């Protein structure tokens, strides 16, 4: 009881954590802070320059006992947090794939967070469910998806957090559909297919879904086919599995692979898959957004024969993280695999079977009002402007590709398809004194190819690290066919042509320095 007096003192100074006027005051401060951040973001080193553990040295070991003013907290954000951020919104950010933002996406996120609804079923917030169904049909029509993927055609769309979730949900639906046919005791026979360029999300989903690790197939690709999965390679792999008594289950075809934006031929792969009752999911996480442009739509030709299709609006569609758009032809397959119906969630609307309960289309029960931000993006910019934004990024990437072509020290490793350029710096010929040669039948000397590639890979590793350490630009790498290449992905919303020109100058300057000592 000795703490009673102290407790009374504490209770006497409590303010409501959601006081409208204080929310207005602090909210204005936060918007001003972020507006200044976007204005100044290109001045920061793009990749964070801090060392591991930097923040623990700066922050107290325990939470504050008494409240601190927002002014103090924002000052600490500026001095302690911002240095530890890799600035994905920087116009000099060309790494991984973009995480493009926009005013509309941000404001939609504000509305979603402000309402703070938990829209697990229709009853819990009818507008959240119905708006999601509507915007997914809108976007599906923009992509010219077949009607079978839309609610009007007995299919439907759902907003997941990420592609990892979308693949896991569809793989789980495919698994249960197959096991209901062949018996659950045969789960160890199920086989999942992708290529050696497919995102690692597929392998993770297979592990979670209980697919035996030995039954995951990463079918090899080659440069001859631009690292796309060929129907012949898929079929031969499937036949070998059937011969071994296994059961083909699921294929993930990709439009715009992470390493090189390779495109798997959807139509021909679906033709193979249908012969073996395989569920086909099309992962267009990055490149799907571009397919709202007529000139890119052909990359998803054949999608009418797939079972599911997804893209990430938070990558290249100006909608803040997270927002993965998933369409399925057979929503009942998701519902059968993922639904639970405890008594405490029963309600008249659900029992009527006239509404969508999105909790049954995803892994988690709770879900955010993601459709609000996608709705604002679609309405604020319109189809025409969204297409032009995407085209401007492709044009900038094409210009960067042109810069590389003019400098014979560099080469394009794989053809540019969308807004990412994969290139490398070629190593200078080694002195004859250290060159290992062999004599061929024509009497011509050749340096050992493997040794050349090793030198080239080391050179480009050094070049990339030098560029990123400078803070002037940020790029990342990939390995395809044993070749280490630098990925230059245009897509940050604030990027303009001048930033691409500057990035190329940075590449050239660091190449000059490294070649001088290589």
From TrEMBL:
<dbReference type="InterPro" id="IPR015422">
    <property type="entry name" value="PyrdxlP-dep_Trfase_small"/>
</dbReference>
<comment type="subunit">
    <text>Homodimer.</text>
</comment>
<dbReference type="InterPro" id="IPR002129">
    <property type="entry name" value="PyrdxlP-dep_de-COase"/>
</dbReference>
<dbReference type="InterPro" id="IPR015421">
    <property type="entry name" value="PyrdxlP-dep_Trfase_major"/>
</dbReference>
<keyword id="KW-0663">Pyridoxal phosphate</keyword>
<dbReference type="InterPro" id="IPR021115">
    <property type="entry name" value="Pyridoxal-P_BS"/>
</dbReference>
<dbReference type="GO" id="GO:0005737">
    <property type="term" value="C:cytoplasm"/>
</dbReference>
<dbReference type="InterPro" id="IPR015424">
    <property type="entry name" value="PyrdxlP-dep_Trfase"/>
</dbReference>
<dbReference type="GO" id="GO:0019752">
    <property type="term" value="P:carboxylic acid metabolic process"/>
</dbReference>
<dbReference type="Pfam" id="PF00282">
    <property type="entry name" value="Pyridoxal_deC"/>
</dbReference>
<keyword id="KW-0456">Lyase</keyword>
<protein>
    <recommendedName>
        <fullName>tyrosine decarboxylase</fullName>
        <ecNumber>4.1.1.25</ecNumber>
    </recommendedName>
</protein>
<dbReference type="InterPro" id="IPR010977">
    <property type="entry name" value="Aromatic_deC"/>
</dbReference>
<comment type="similarity">
    <text>Belongs to the group II decarboxylase family.</text>
</comment>
<feature type="modified residue" description="N6-(pyridoxal phosphate)lysine">
    <location>
        <position position="315"/>
    </location>
</feature>
<dbReference type="GO" id="GO:0006520">
    <property type="term" value="P:amino acid metabolic process"/>
</dbReference>
<keyword id="KW-0210">Decarboxylase</keyword>
<dbReference type="GO" id="GO:0030170">
    <property type="term" value="F:pyridoxal phosphate binding"/>
</dbReference>
<dbReference type="GO" id="GO:0004837">
    <property type="term" value="F:tyrosine decarboxylase activity"/>
</dbReference>
């Amino acid at each position: 009881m000795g703490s009673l007096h102290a407790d009374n003192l504490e209770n006497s100074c409590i303010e409501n954590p959601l006081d409208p006027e204080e929310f207005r005051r602090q909210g204005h401060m936060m918007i001003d802070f972020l507006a200044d951040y976007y204005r100044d973001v290109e001045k920061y080193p793009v990749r964070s320059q801090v060392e591991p553990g930097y923040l623990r040295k700066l922050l107290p070991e325990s939470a504050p006992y008494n409240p601190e003013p927002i002014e103090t907290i924002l000052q600490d954000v500026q001095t302690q947090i911002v240095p530890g951020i890799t600035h994905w919104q920087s116009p000099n950010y060309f790494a991984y794939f973009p995480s493009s933002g926009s005013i509309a996406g941000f404001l939609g996120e504000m509305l979603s967070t402000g309402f703070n609804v938990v829209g697990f079923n229709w009853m819990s917030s009818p507008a959240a469910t119905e708006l999601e169904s509507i915007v997914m049909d809108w976007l599906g029509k923009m992509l010219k998806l077949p009607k079978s993927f839309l609610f009007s055609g007995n299919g439907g769309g759902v907003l997941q957090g990420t592609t990892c979730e979308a693949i896991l949900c569809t793989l789980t639906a495919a698994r249960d559909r197959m096991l209901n046919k062949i018996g659950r005791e045969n789960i160890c026979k199920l086989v999942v297919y992708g290529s050696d360029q497919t995102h690692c999300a597929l392998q993770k989903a297979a592990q979670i879904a209980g697919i035996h690790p030995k039954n995951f197939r990463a079918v090899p690709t080659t440069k001859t086919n631009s690292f796309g999965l060929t129907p012949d390679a898929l079929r031969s792999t499937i036949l070998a599995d059937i011969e071994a008594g296994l059961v083909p289950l699921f294929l993930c075809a990709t439009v715009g692979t992470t390493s090189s934006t390779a495109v798997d031929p959807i139509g021909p792969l679906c033709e193979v898959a249908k012969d073996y009752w395989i569920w086909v999911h099309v992962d267009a996480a990055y490149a799907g957004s571009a397919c709202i442009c007529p000139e890119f739509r052909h990359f998803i030709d054949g999608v009418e024969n797939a079972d599911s299709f997804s893209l990430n609006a938070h990558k290249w569609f100006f909608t803040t993280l997270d927002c993965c758009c998933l369409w399925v032809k057979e929503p009942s397959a998701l519902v059968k695999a993922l639904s639970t119906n405890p008594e405490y969630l029963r309600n008249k609307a659900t029992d009527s079977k006239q509404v969508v309960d999105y909790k049954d289309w995803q892994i988690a029960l709770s879900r955010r009002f993601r459709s609000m931000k996608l709705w604002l993006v679609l309405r604020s910019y319109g189809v025409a402007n969204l297409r032009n934004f995407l085209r401007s990024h492709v044009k900038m990437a094409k210009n960067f590709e042109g810069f590389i072509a003019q400098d014979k020290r560099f080469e394009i490793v794989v053809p540019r398809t969308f807004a990412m350029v994969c290139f490398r710096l070629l190593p200078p010929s080694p002195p004859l004194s250290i060159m290992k040669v062999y004599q061929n039948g024509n009497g011509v000397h050749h340096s050992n190819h493997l040794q050349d590639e090793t030198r080239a890979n080391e050179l480009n590793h050094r070049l990339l690290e030098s560029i990123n350490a400078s803070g002037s630009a940020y790029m990342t790498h990939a390995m395809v066919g044993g070749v280490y290449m630098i990925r230059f992905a245009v897509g940050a919303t604030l990027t303009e042509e001048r930033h691409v020109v500057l990035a190329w100058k940075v590449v050239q300057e660091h190449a000059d320095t490294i070649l001088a000592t290589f």
